[in-house]
Design goal:
Radius of gyration: 20 Å
Order of helices and strands: HHHEEEEEHHHHHH
Oligomer: single chain
Distance between the termini: 19 Å
Strand content: 5-15%
Number of helices: 9
Number of strands: 5
Length: about 200
């Protein structure tokens, strides 16, 4: 049992830097569908709050439908050409992808490429969740009262957005790859820890 476990851990240690490097330099590609889905969602859900979302390399640009008036107050729609824009970093929650890839590649399985494909699709909802609440957190706290009044955001909703943002940034990116990997490799897990696998 120890040798397969040691080989697996060694494989993860070897593969993670490689997958992390590839993930970083290809951010513009693997983040594109997440940014597009988020843009479509906000165009349908909050068109009066978000003008557009655009991905620039590994930076997500948020153009809000808010701006400052002559008195310096934030209003919507903006009175001039200047709108409130924000640069967000989606890499802080999308690192689950290279972690999942390293787990899959370190696992002895003849269907690695198929598992990588399935893993990519399965991780999309978690990244979408994280991106959506990153945008909502920015609108709620950085645009502030103007957005909250426009969308009738209660204090309970403010707290919920903050919690969901923290979960989408700190918790989900760590546990989602593990859950997906376990679901896809139960047979391998049984070899490593039969008692644990039988309870999953």
């Amino acid at each position: 049992m120890k040798k397969p476990l040691h080989r697996f851990i060694f494989g993860v240690v070897i593969w993670f830097p490689i997958t992390f490097f590839i993930w970083y330099i290809t951010a513009n590609f693997h983040l594109a569908p997440i940014a597009w889905l988020s843009d479509q969602l906000f165009a349908w859900w909050m068109p009066e709050a978000v003008m557009w979302l655009k991905l620039d390399q590994h930076t997500l640009i948020l153009a809000s439908n808010f701006g400052a008036n002559t008195a310096g107050q934030i209003v919507s729609p903006p009175t001039g050409d200047d709108v409130l824009g924000f640069h967000l970093n989606p890499l802080i929650y999308s690192y689950s992808l290279p972690l999942l890839y390293s787990l899959i590649l370190a696992t002895p399985d003849k269907d690695k490429w198929l598992n990588l494909l399935w893993g990519t699709f399965l991780i999309i909802p978690t990244e979408l969740f994280s991106m959506v609440f990153s945008i909502l957190k920015t609108l709620t706290f950085d645009v502030g009262e103007a957005f909250q009044q426009q969308q009738n955001v209660s204090q309970l909703m403010v707290d919920s957005i903050a919690i969901a943002y923290q979960a989408g940034t700190l918790i989900i990116p760590m546990i989602a790859p593990l859950i997906i990997w376990v679901a896809m490799h139960r047979k391998f897990l049984e070899k490593l820890a039969p008692q644990i696998a039988s309870k999953l």
